Amino acid sequence: LVVEGNASSRCGISMKGINIVVRGNVGHMSAFMAQSGNLVVLGDAGDALGDSIYEARLFVRGKVKSLGADCIEKEMRPEHIAVLQDLLDRAGIRDVRPDEFTRYGSARTLYNFNIDNADAY
Fold first, then answer.
1. Terminus of the chain with fewer CB atoms < 10 Å: N or C?
2. What are the start-end ranges of the H helices in 1-121?
3. pLDDT in tens, 66-116
4. What residue ranges do the domains of the chain occupy?
5. What is the largest CA-CA distance in the chain?
6. Which helix (H) or strand (E) holds 19?
């Protein structure tokens, strides 16, 4: 799915394998509870990006206002560069390089309830 402009709040909520490329910005709570797939944002992301994320991959080119519970910045390894390049190519985006993005994903601390993490839920 390619969004030719901005997407509002909760873009990619509960993703289950879809790939979404947003040429603009995404609003707050985007990729909330995203389970799998990829969200590519060429612009900025609002508050609580990736809150309660599972295994989806988030790639943001711009600024992120804040990360949601259990979402962290992750290393961009060669396999992620390849995935991102493929997504950009399939979306017809030729003027952007994968190394301009930051990758975000799950810290994997909230998969199972633990009383020590109760404040994060």
1. C
2. 78-90
3. 999 999 999 999 999 999 999 999 999 999 999 999 999 999 987 666 667
4. 2-115
5. 47
6. strand 16-22
